[in-house]
Amino acid sequence: MSNGVMTGRPRRDPRAERARCLVPGGARPRLARAGRDGMAIAPDAGPREPVMIRVETPVFWVAAVVEAPNGRLDRWARQTLGAARVLAGADGGVVALLAGRDAGEAVGEAGADRVVWLDTAIGPDAMPGVMLAALAPFAPRHVVLAETPAGGDWARRLAARSGWPIQTGIEMLSARQAIRPVGAVRRERAAVPARVLTLPIDRVAPYGGTRREGRPCPPPDVPAMAARMQVGPVMAAQAAGIPLAEAPFVMAAGQGVVDFESFHTLSRLMGATEGASRVVCDAGLMPRAAQVGASGTVLDARCYLAFGIAGAPQHLQGLGKVEHVVAVNTDLHAAIVARAGLSIIADAQAVMPALIALLRGEG
C-alpha cells in the first residue's frame, strides 16, 4: 500500500527471509539465496579436503636438488623446484632430493611429486655418489640445482662422476631451451637443456599451481660409500655475530623506537640480527654497521621486522631481495607498510613488551 493505494506487491519480511536462507551447521553463518522459495538446502559439509595432484607413473622424471638446512624452503629452493616443473611440463614428474631437514608439506606445495631425503653429514666428495644412488630408480631426464656454493659444487661433481652434460648459470629456461651467458657475459647461447643444470637466483619463477603430493621415498642405501671427509653437525650461528648482509632474519629500529632496552631484549629472544635506519645511526643510538639502506647495507634476508620505520626511498632500497617484510608503525599510510606483507598498526613501545612477554611465556 502506498498513500492508501494497494500496489499488489507482496510485503517482504527481511528477517524471516534471512532465517529461511540461513544454512544450518558450519563454523560461520552462510546464506543460500537460491533456497528462499522453500527449496531444500543441504547442510554445510564442513571444510573441504585440500586439492592435491597425485602422479603415479609419469612419462619421465625431472630431479631438483633442494637445500633446506633448517627445514625451510627459501626463495632459491622454491625457484629450483619451479624450474624442474617447467622442464617436466604436463607429462613429467618432479622428484626433490632434499639436502637438509624435513620441510614437511612445503616441498609438495613448491611442486614436488616425490621427495628423497639426503644426509648432508656426508662429505662433498661422496655426495655425487649418494645423488646417483638416489636418482637411479627415477632415471631423470634433467637434474636442476641452485648455483649456490654447495649446489654449484655438487652439480659439477655430479656431472664429472656421471659423465652427464652440464649447463651452468642458466638465465632463461623453458622445456625446449636453456639460455646462458658466454664470452665473458657479452653474448648468450641458446641450446637444448642439458642433463644437469644450475640456476642463479631469480631466473625462474617458483611453482604457483595446485599443490603436488610430495610423497616421501626411501633414502638411498649407500653403506659402502666411504667419504674422505665427514661433515659434522650444523651449528646455528649467534644472530649478533652474523654480518647484516648475510643475516636471514633482521630486526630493525627506526625513529619510532625509544625503548632500546626492550628492542635489544626482543632481538635476542627472537634470534634476530639487529639493524637500524639512518636516523637512528646518525643519532648514535645504534652502530653505523647496523644501518640498512642505500648508504648502509643492502639486505638479502628471509624476513625483515621493522619497528617504527617510515620507509624512506633510500631505506627501502636497502631491503633488496628480502622475502618477507613485517612492519610495526602507527601510520597506516607509511611507505614501509605498503612494502610489508604483514603490518601491525600500533606503537612499537607497546608491541615490543607484548612480544617479549609472549616469547617468555612460551619458554
UniProtKB/TrEMBL annotation:
Protein name: Electron transfer flavoprotein subunit alpha/FixB family protein
GO molecular function: electron transfer activity; flavin adenine dinucleotide binding
Any single Pfam family the record assigns to this protein: ETF
Gene3D superfamilies on file: HUPs (3.40.50.620), TPP-binding domain (3.40.50.1220)
Annotated keywords: Electron transport, Transport
UniProt record similarity statement: Belongs to the ETF alpha-subunit/FixB family.
Electron transfer flavoprotein alpha/beta-subunit N-terminal domain ranges (all copies): 64-184
GO terms, biological process: fatty acid beta-oxidation using acyl-CoA dehydrogenase
Keyword Electron transport annotated: yes
UniProt key word Electron transport: yes
